[in-house]
Structures are given as C-alpha cells and as structure tokens.
C-alpha cells in the first residue's frame, strides 16, 4: 500500500542464513570443490610431451635424413621379362575364354614349367650357380655399398642359406598365372653389376628350361624305346632259333627240300603211269608171263616202291621205327619262321613308334622366350631418399601419437 508522507514503510529485510561452523553450505547454490592444477605440474606435462615427441619423431627423422641424404649408396635396377613357351601353346577358343575368366583353368605344362622357373630364381641352387660364376658375395660386399645395404657375412652365418636370404631381399620376381610370364628385377650397387646378374639369371633359367625339356623328351620316348628293346630281343631269339634249326638239320630251307620231294614224287608217278599204260597195251596181245611184260611190271613195282619211300619221308607213313619225318621237320621250321616274321614286324612297328614319339617330343619341346632383355640402367631407382624420409616421419608420428594416447588412457584409468 502507498504510505502517507512522513510515515516510514514497513519493509521486510531478509536475514542472512547462519551456517554452522565446519559444515558445507546447503542448497543448490552450494559451490563444488575444484582442484586447481599447479603451474609446475602443467609445465612438466608440456615438457614431457615435447621430449617424447623429440625422441620419437625428431630423432628417427634426423637419422633417416642423414642416412638417406649422405650415407645411402645408390642402387641400380636391371629388369628382364620372359616366359616358357612351346609348340603346343595354341589354345582353343574355349581355353582362351577360361583363361580370361579364370574358371576351370587347368595347369598346362608350360604354366607349370614357368612356375618352376619362378621358384628356381628364389632357390639356393641359383644363388650357388651365381656365386660360382659371378662371385655374388664380392658383388654385394664391395666398397660401393653402404654399411646398411651391403651383405654382411658373419663367421658363423656366411653360408649359402644366409646368402640366399640376402639375395631374395635384393631380387624380386613375379609370376603372372594367366599369361605364364615372369618379371624379374635385381638391384646392385653399380649398373654393370646389375646387368651382369640379370643376364646370368636369365641364362641359368634358360638352362633349367632346356633341362626340363630334355627330361620331357626322354620321358616321352622312354616307353617306346623299352618296347623297341623287347621287340629287338624277340627278333634276335627268333633268328637264333632258325639258325640253330638249320645247323641241326643241315638244310637251308626245308620248304625247298619239300618242294623238290614233291616234284620227284610227281615225276615218279608220271613214270609209273606210263609203265602201267605200256603193261596194259602189251597184255592185250601178249601173255602175262612173257619176258617183256614181266620187265615192265618189275619196273612198275620199283616205281611204286620208290614213290612210297618218298611219300614216307614227307610224312604219309608214320612207323615207330622210321627216321624223323619231313612233315614234322617242315612243321617245326614253319613255326620258327612264323615267329621270326612276327618278331620282325613287331620290331619294325616298335621302331616306327620310337620315331613317332621322338617327333611328338620335338613338337612338345620347351624354350625360354625373353621378350624384355636386361639393359644397362642409367639412373639409380633405390633408395627413394625423400620418400623414405617422409615415410619415417609419418610412421614415427603415428607411433608417437598412439603411444601418447595409450599412456594418458592408462594414467586416467588408474587415477
């Protein structure tokens, strides 16, 4: 209400709240306790982060810059590209479609040989061959190499396996399964050495392909040669049997003897028929006991006896006490001659099969087709100095950031 002039208004003045000593203020307006960090602690954290960043990022980057900028020796790369090819590599349209789609592709002989060559390049056998021809240890321990990239043989590890491990770090090959091509690169500390190593590697790979091709040819004609050897042995045995028969019988060809015997019997029979005709003619007007008729009959009886003897020799008679019949001898000779003819034909067929197998093997021969010859490099491709320094910087930064996050995460979790 309004007050009259000169009269004091009755105002209500709020009394301050009395708080008990030792107790926190009550109500929503009560302030929360805040722990204030000391300046020394914050400064220590900042210094720790700076020191860790300097050690984890700056030091590796500086060392990488010094090494790649001042110490790292240039490395030259020689490249070669080749493939194993053969006369039977013409694929049908269906095979070509399968090769493009990658479905149902069967590993051909050239593909398997290319894969073998790719594995051979990484093997200790190639390293041993290169060591004998090029002194591979001397190439990669020369004064042109720096202490990090050079081959460092130890007294207890200077073995062929240790050298092979180093070889696989400076060489690289890629096998393309669809086209069956191989890409090979090798690094060295001089252009001439890189070219020598690449050429010698291609030469050793070519030797391997020739060896595989020769082995394939030998395997292809091995069975045919075995059959030829068996047929030749059979022919020799058949010929030896015929020779033994001729030596035992004293006859070159029993067939000729039998033919002569048959001709003789035919002649005797013809003479007997003539004698019998004369006898019949004389007995028509002479007595049967006349001297001339008796002579003709005696002659006819002698012819009959001779004919029977000759027939018995051929085999018309088989008496137990008789000598060996010509028919049995002829039968034995015919069996031997038949075996010899069969053996001769089998040997000729086996010889033809060997020649056919040899022709097929020549058509299936393999060779190394080098379509990119190794050339003398003009500039060093390794090391990529700027890229490597940047890579060290990025990797060390990422590693430092991850370490810092892990450290503070662990500290906050345990606080």
For the structure shown, list the relevant keywords:
415 residues; alpha+beta; Bacterial polysaccharide co-polymerase-like; 2 domains; 11 helices; rod-shaped; disordered N terminus; Bact_polysacc_biosynth/exp
Polypeptide structure, described:
The chain has a 4-stranded antiparallel sheet. It has helices at residues 39-71, 93-101, 109-121, 124-134, 136-140, 160-170, 191-249, 254-282, 291-314, 326-363, 385-414; strands at 76-86, 171-176, 181-188, 366-372. Helix content is 63%, strand content 8%. The protein folds into 2 domains: 71-90 and 104-225 and 366-386, Bacterial polysaccharide co-polymerase-like (2-Layer Sandwich), CATH 3.30.1890.10; 227-363, Orthogonal Bundle (Helix Hairpins), CATH 1.10.287. The longest helix has 59 residues, at 191-249. It is an alpha+beta fold.
Describe the secondary structure blueprint for this structure.
Layout: H1 39-71, E1 76-86, H2 93-101, H3 109-121, H4 124-134, H5 136-140, H6 160-170, E2 171-176, E3 181-188, H7 191-249, H8 254-282, H9 291-314, H10 326-363, E4 366-372, H11 385-414
Antiparallel strand pairs: 1-3, 1-4, 2-3
Helix pairs in contact: 1-11, 3-7, 4-7, 7-10, 8-9
- Low-confidence region ranges: 1-13, 19-30, 90-107, 316-323
CATH architecture tag of the largest domain: 2-Layer Sandwich
* Total discrete domains: 2
- Rg (CA only): 55 Å
Order of helices and strands: HEHHHHHEEHHHHEH
SS element count, helices: 11
Mean pLDDT: 77
- Fraction of residues in helices? 55-70%
- CATH topology of the largest domain: the name is Bacterial polysaccharide co-polymerase-like
Termini gap: 62 Å
Biased composition (Polar residues): 1-11
InterPro entries: Bact_polysacc_biosynth/exp
Region (Disordered): 1-39
Keywords: Coiled coil, Membrane, Transmembrane, Transmembrane helix
